[in-house]
Amino acid sequence: MAKRVAVLLAGCGVFDGSEIHEASAVLVHLSREGAQAEVYAPNIPQMHVVDHVKGQPTAEQRNVLVESARIARGNIKDLATLDVKGLDALIIPGGFGVAKNLSTWATQGKNCSVSKEVEAVLRAFHAAHKPIGLCCISPVLAAKIFPGCEVTVGHDTECEQWPYAKTAEAMKELGCRHVNSQVTEAHVDARNRLVSTSAFMCNAPIHQVHDGIGSMVREVLRLA
C-alpha cells in the first residue's frame, strides 16, 4: 500500500503563501518515492496579498484554499476535513504564508500564535506518533507547539548565505534545540518524529534546495 501523506499549503507564492518551488519539490519527491500526496489548505482569508513583482502589499483579498489550489492543480481539500487516522505523515512546505496565514510569526515572532486548526492537525499527528516534515520557515510551528523539540532552519549565524539566521535564535528562545545543517541535509528529531530542512532559508542554488527537500521527504517516509 502506498503511504498517504498530507501536504499542508498556505497559499500560492513565497511572499504571501506557500513557496511554490518547495511545494512542487515535496510533491515530486513523494511521487518519486511511490507515496500518495493529499493536499490540504485552510479555508481562510490570506493575511494580505503581495505583488510579487514589486514586493509590496496590494489592496486585493484572496483565500488561502483557493490560492493553494493553483499549486495542487485543483486537487485539494479543506483542512477542516483532514482525518489523521487515514494518513501516514504530514509535510508543510515553507513560504511566508506559513508565518502569515498559518501563524502570526511574521508580525509577532516568538510571541506568535498558531492557527487553531493548524495546531490541532499538528498535535493530532504528533499524538499518533506519525512523522511531520517541515521546510524552510515551517519548523517555527513545531518550535511554538512542541517545546524541547529539535529542528533546523539551517544556520544560526547570519551571513550572505544564511540571511534569515536570526530565526534560529528566536526558536531557541521558545525552548527548542536548533541544529545547524547544510541546505542539502535534513535533521531528524526521532523522539518527536519531526524532520526539517532549511530550503530557501539558505541563499543556495535551487537544485540544492530541491535535494534537501528530497532528504526530508525520504526521512519522513522512513519514519511513516
Structure characterization notes:
This is GAL3B protein. InterPro entries: Class_I_gatase-like. The chain has 224 residues and is α/β, with parallel strands linked by helices. It has a single domain, classed as Rossmann fold (3-Layer(aba) Sandwich). The chain has eight helices and eleven strands. The chain has helices at residues 20-32, 64-71, 96-100, 105-108, 116-127, 139-145, 166-173, 206-223; strands at residues 4-8, 36-41, 50-51, 56-57, 76-78, 89-92, 132-135, 150-151, 177-178, 187-189, 194-197. The strands form three sheets. It has a seven-stranded mixed sheet. Strands 3-4 form a two-stranded antiparallel sheet. A hairpin with a 4-residue loop joins strand 3 (50-51) and strand 4 (56-57). It is globular, with a radius of gyration of 16 Å. The model has no long low-confidence stretch (mean pLDDT 97).
